[in-house]
Amino acid sequence: MIDGLVAGRLMGDASRRVDKAGRGYVVARVLARNRADEEFIVNVIAFDETPGTALLALADGDALSLAGGLTPKVWTDKQGVVRPSLDMIANRVLVVAG
User: CA–CA separation, 82 vs 86, rounded Å?
Assistant: First the structure.
């Protein structure tokens, strides 16, 4: 896993889930861009209450930055094009009050 900092915009709303053991966590998706303006989808999961609560307070399209562990992945779109994505376990969520 890579320690990373990602900035982007929330895609849809974050949602709270519960695992089989009854522990809660929050999942979200973030659209981020690199310097070449290529888009990356970041699949975010937050196990700790503080980042989870911050994600749940945001709405679709809100800007945010996330710090945590990153795992690079790839996925294939409907046209068969392989695209990069990232999975992140968020430890911190930073937002700008608007």
Answer: 13
Q: What is the DSSP letter of 7?
A: E
Q: Does pTM top 0.90 for this prediction?
A: no
Count CA within 13 A, CB hemisphere, residue 61.
Answer: 1
Q: Length of the chain in residues, anyone?
A: 98
Residue 95: the pLDDT is 87
Smallest CA-to-CA distance from 29 within 49, 50, 6, 1 is with 6
pLDDT below 70 — which residues of the chain?
A: 97-98
Side chain identity at residue 62, one-letter code? D
DSSP 18-86: E-TTS-EEEEEEEEEE-TT--EEEEEEEE-SHHHHHHHHT--TT-EEEEEEEEEEEEEE-TTS-EEEEE
Distance CA 50, CA 53 (A): 5
